[in-house]
Design brief:
This protein is mainly alpha-helical and about 120 residues long. It contains three helices and two strands, in the order ββααα. Helix content is about 70%, strand content about 10%.
Length: about 120
C-alpha cells in the first residue's frame, strides 16, 4: 500500500492508498477539500469537525442524487434502447458501488484525524 501526503483545508494528512488508486484518491481529496473550504469560507462555521460533517453530508447527498438519477434512467429505458442502455447503467452502478466504500473509509480517516485536532480555525 502506498502512502500519499495530502492537504485538506491547509492541514496535512498521510493517507494509505492501494496501488493504482492514487488518481482517484487525489480526486476525492480535492472534492473534500473544496467542499470543506466552501463551508469555511461562508464564514458561519469555524469548527473543523462541524465543517467536516457538513462537507460529508453534502458529498453523500450529491452521491445519492447521482444514484437516484441512475435509477431513474434505468427505469425509463424504452424497448428500442434496452440493449444499449443496460451495460451503461450496470457500469455506472458498479462504479458508484465501488466508490462508496472508499468514500466511507476516507471520511472515517478524516473524522479520526479531526477528532484529535479539537481546534477552531
Amino acid at each position: 500500500m502506498k502512502q500519499l501526503d495530502v492537504q485538506i483545508m491547509g492541514q496535512s494528512y498521510l493517507l494509505g492508498c492501494p496501488e493504482g488508486g492514487e488518481a482517484r484518491l487525489l480526486d476525492a481529496v480535492e472534492k473534500v477539500d473544496a467542499a470543506m473550504c466552501k463551508i469555511r469560507d461562508a464564514g458561519k462555521i469555524k469548527a473543523r469537525d462541524r465543517i467536516a460533517v457538513l462537507a460529508a453530508l453534502n458529498l453523500a447527498f450529491e452521491l445519492s442524487e447521482l444514484e437516484a438519477n441512475a435509477l431513474k434512467t434505468s427505469r425509463t429505458v424504452t424497448p428500442s434502447t434496452t440493449i444499449a442502455a443496460k451495460p451503461q447503467v450496470a457500469a455506472m452502478s458498479a462504479a458508484e458501488a465501488a466508490a462508496q466504500p472508499q468514500l466511507t473509509a476516507l471520511l472515517q480517516r478524516l473524522d479520526s484525524a479531526l477528532g484529535v485536532d479539537g481546534r477552531l480555525l
